[in-house]
Amino acid sequence: MKILKPIIALLLIVALGAVSVACLDDGADSSVKTAEPSDGVSTDDGSDDVDDDAIAITLGNMNFTVADLQEAYDYYVDYYEYYGEEWTASIDFPFEDYDSVYEALLAMSIEDVISSNTVLWQAELAGVTLTEEELAEVEVEVQALEDEMLSYFIEDAESSSDGTLTEAELEEQAMANIDSYLASYGYTYDDYMSDYRDYMTEEAIISKMSVLFAEDYEVAQEEVDAWIETLKNEQIDSFEADPLAYRTQADSYAAGTSDEPLLYAPEGFIRVQLISIAPEGELDASYDTNLATMAELEAEYGALVLNGEDEERQAQIISDYATLKANVESTYTLYIKSAQDAAAEAYSRVEAGEDFAALMSEYNSETPTDDALANGVLVYTLSEDSNYSSELWSAITALPQGSVSNVLQIDGVFYIVKVLGSEPSGELEISEEEYAALADAAAEELAAGAWDDQVAAWFELAKQEMITFPEAYAHFLN
Q1: Which helix (H) or strand (E) holds 422?
Q2: Among 57, 66, 104, which residue's Cα sits nearest to residue 465?
Q3: Average pLDDT over residues 63-83
Q4: What gap in Å lies between CA 219 and CA 437, rounded to an integer?
Q5: Following CA atoms 279, 283, 284, 288 in sequence, which dihedral angle do they give, to the nearest 10 degrees?
Q6: Among 137, 368, 377, 473, which one has the highest count of C-beta atoms within 10 angstroms of its own C-beta?
Q7: Residue 147, C-beta contacts closer than 8 angstroms, at least 6 positions apart
């Protein structure tokens, strides 16, 4: 039965015991069935009388033991005692309906056991099981875990050995370490792998149930259209609040990292193509050294002038400063010369009528994307665009549509800008292919939502159908 949820950390090694927080809103349900006390089940809280194998809850043909419930209850208690009322206040559960927090935690634990097994219960009622092929896929997952565990522990044994162990000895040591590790969680190797196999089998059944549900679920055209309309309205709200979010989505969609086409565009965007050529390599080290020395001379000269001191030194500073400045300018001119020459050459070819996108591919220091070559890049014009320096943005937005700039030198980089035109704004038309993709996405999401609703309905039914045996776990609250 699906009680424990493996926490697979560090090589998928599972420390079983964590149970998900149900956080459900129906706590004290007076219709929950309670069995009459069973003969031979002690309600004494003495440890000698506690029967961990006693039945605590039943749901159809599924039985859950005191140990199963204890697992969930201990988790919640540990969580509460660590985080306190800050945690209980943050989750959707009616703690006020119970005489104590611990009674509420016990009710949550019962619900968690049932919610974790609701789909499995319905699968049993529907006769849904795994085929031989599906069971074989589970075995592949189990074998993968075994292989990964062994591989990790072999590497660990090898790293801690003196290099004299044979392959067989390393594997033997690794298996001993695995046994020791699992024993620290109360497991033998065989028991652990058996539990993992059961867990993966149950996960496969749950997945199969959701697939069968989706196959039978029919989405109405009106639902699809409403879903797309909601998406459009979400884009309108987002892009009007932050126009640059439009460019982010446009770039993501063009790059294939988002499946969401653009249904709306805010005003103020243009598309431009950019030839961008930066100098290669690094400036000579003397450049920064000379700039630093010039700054020191400026400070010294200012102090001398202010105090009317040492005119001879002032004259020397002026001379030294002029020499350094000439060196700095010469160094910088040499550094940018190849980029400057390339920009001049590219501009002459633009003027000669060559294809601008082809020149971008040939000259740009960074390889442009296919979308930038075909459609240009977006620039926001109604306020400064954070993607561009203030000087470059001002130059771009000053150009008429369809025009090409002269060579622009900004912060050592040479640009040639071609303004393609304004980006359409308002509601946008999408292609048939894009609509079909959206319709598929809508159907998938709507089916997933319907599946969640179905599981929730089954859970409500499960709470009515389950039978609890309070005397079996009465000692939890003593």
Answers
A1: strand 413-422
A2: 57
A3: 95
A4: 15
A5: 160
A6: 473
A7: none
* Cα separation values, 301 from 195, 212, 308, 310, 473, Å: 81, 84, 10, 10, 88
List the structure tokens of 366. 């960074």
pLDDT digits 0-9 by tens, 288-332: 999 999 999 999 999 999 988 888 999 999 999 999 999 999 999
The phi and psi torsions of 281 (rounded to 5 degrees) equal: 75, -165
Query: How many residues are given for the chain?
Result: 478
**Largest distance between two CA atoms of the chain:** 113
Q: Where does 12-66 show beta strands of DSSP type E? A: 13-14, 33-34, 55-59, 62-65
Beta bridge partners of 9: 13
Q: In Å, what is the CA distance from 93 to each residue of 42, 332, 475?
A: 30, 69, 23
Estimate to the nearest angstrom the gap between the alpha carbon of 235 and the chain centroid: 21
- pLDDT at 19 exceeding the cut of 90: no
pLDDT for 222 equals: 96
Buried b (16+ CB within 10 A) or exposed e, 344-380: eebbebbeeeeebbebbeebbeeebeeebbebbbbbb
Residue among 397, 18, 459, 321 at smallest CA distance from 199: 18
